[in-house]
Write a structure and sequence with these properties.
Elements: H1 35-60, H2 74-81, E1 89-91, H3 97-102, H4 107-114, H5 139-152, E2 160-165, H6 172-184, E3 188-194, E4 197-198, E5 201-202, H7 203-206, H8 215-219, E6 222-227, H9 231-246, E7 256-261, H10 280-287, H11 291-301, H12 307-329, H13 338-341, H14 349-365, H15 367-371
Parallel strand pairs: 1-2, 2-3, 3-7, 6-7
Antiparallel strand pairs: 4-5
The structure holds thiamine diphosphate and magnesium ion.
Keywords: Oxidoreductase, Pyruvate
GO molecular function, one term: oxidoreductase activity, acting on the aldehyde or oxo group of donors, disulfide as acceptor
Pfam families: E1_dh
Length: about 375
């Protein structure tokens, strides 16, 4: 089966390889990964889940400012990011801690960012990862611009994978980014993590379209809906979309919109209480689709994983997260001047005035008084 055939389907034909019991569905082909790569996928998902639990706990203990949890979304993040080549770029929103980790951003950077340290955004030179974007959908036109620049420079072999949520699809930036990508045929994969909620706004209130995938039709390129809690379907689809972005066949448009249908098990952020807008029964329904046990069952049934492996992976994961927390917490706190200095390459006159005012307050009252929690 040619890889692009995954993309050649109706937008409401939800693609899946593993069912909820970890069984391969009839007629589906399992991606061509080595045994080590399959286990790596599982290991990264377990790492992401444990990291998430620890991060929420750090926030509750007052050791981190705020944090957007990702539990339930590990399959979508790890499966898609594993399809990237080193030269490809990843453009995240604010929830992609697992995807960015897979593409080279260390966990301690993510911790630093949510601890309020701007150096969390110091992406290592060799990781093609953009900084986290909090203004909803603002990263979408950036991703199109990056891909267009790459095309203008005649770079071949670079794909640009951009993540955003279901809520982002109501923003003008989403439309502008995808419309431009279609017209200029840029090497983009637009990956919508449709986790059913935009804080307290449900998916049905976000758009009257039956699917988000079908929006791609209006931009003139492929749009596919996939089971975002099936890491194998996510991997296979993203790989096919990246391949098409880089080497389109005759008459094919490079961009693709992927709608990965999934659920966030936790709160929108640690500042949110989902119990006021959704029923526990709904959460339970989606918990049955959890991507981690689903992949684990598949790996065990195909002889790629056993009890001993799981135990070793869990121990290693705990150690790795503990080390990342230790590294982040032993990093000196940034000077508050950086709030002003890091907005633009050079400070604008308004920021300079604000900084001067801030320095005056520090002088008058002292840091203890001003920076107290
Ligand atoms: C331009 C803009 N408007 C509003 C907000 C406040 N806000 C933060 S997250 C969010 C919901 C986004 O939902 P979605 O795109 O589905 O992503 P998810 O958080 O579910 O991953 C909103 C409205 C913002 N950050 N930026
Ligand atoms: Mg959402």
């Amino acid at each position: 089966m040619p890889v692009t055939s995954i993309l050649d389907r109706e937008p409401d034909d939800r693609f899946r390889i593993l069912d909820e019991d970890g069984e391969v569905v009839d007629g589906a082909s399992v991606p061509d990964l080595s045994d080590e790569e399959f286990v790596e996928m599982y290991r990264m998902m377990k790492l992401a889940r444990h990291f998430d639990q620890r991060a929420v706990s750090l926030q509750r203990q007052g050791r981190m400012g705020t944090y957007p949890p990702l539990s339930g979304q590990e399959g979508a993040q790890v499966g898609s990011a594993m399809a990237l080549d080193d030269d490809d770029w990843l453009i995240p929103s604010y929830r992609e801690h697992a995807a960015t980790l897979v593409h080279g951003l260390p966990l301690e950077q993510t911790l630093l960012l949510w601890m309020g340290n701007e150096h969390g955004n110091d992406v290592p030179e060799d990781a093609n990862v953009f900084t986290a974007a909090v203004p909803i959908a603002s990263q979408v036109p950036h991703a199109t611009g990056l891909a267009w620049a790459s095309k203008l420079k005649d770079e071949t072999g670079k794909g640009f994978l951009c993540y955003f949520g279901d809520g982002a699809t109501s923003e003008g930036d989403f439309h502008e980014g995808l419309n431009f990508a279609g017209v200029f045929d840029t090497p983009n994969v637009f990956f919508c993590n449709n986790n059913q909620w935009a804080i307290s706004v449900p998916r049905e209130r976000q758009t009257a379209s039956e699917t988000i995938a079908q929006k791609a039709t209006a931009y003139g390129f492929d749009g596919v809906q996939i089971d975002g809690m099936d890491p194998l379907a996510v991997y296979a689809t993203t790989e096919a979309a990246l391949e098409k972005a880089k080497n389109p066949g005759e008459g094919e448009r490079r961009p693709t919109l992927v709608e990965a249908v999934q659920y966030r098990f936790g709160a929108h952020t640690t500042a949110d209480d989902p119990s006021v807008y959704r029923e526990e029964a709904e959460v339970e329904k989606w918990r049955a689709k959890d991507p981690i046990p689903r992949l684990e069952k598949f790996l065990r049934a195909t002889g790629r994983l056993d009890d001993g492996d799981v135990e070793r992976i869990e121990e290693a994961v705990e150690e790795r997260v503990a080390d990342a927390i230790e590294a982040a917490e032993s990093t000196p706190r940034p000077d508050p001047r950086e709030m002003f200095e890091n907005v633009y390459e050079e400070m604008t006159p308004r920021l300079e005035r604000q900084l001067a005012e801030f320095e005056e307050l520090r002088e008058t009252y002292g840091d203890e008084e001003i920076l107290e929690d």
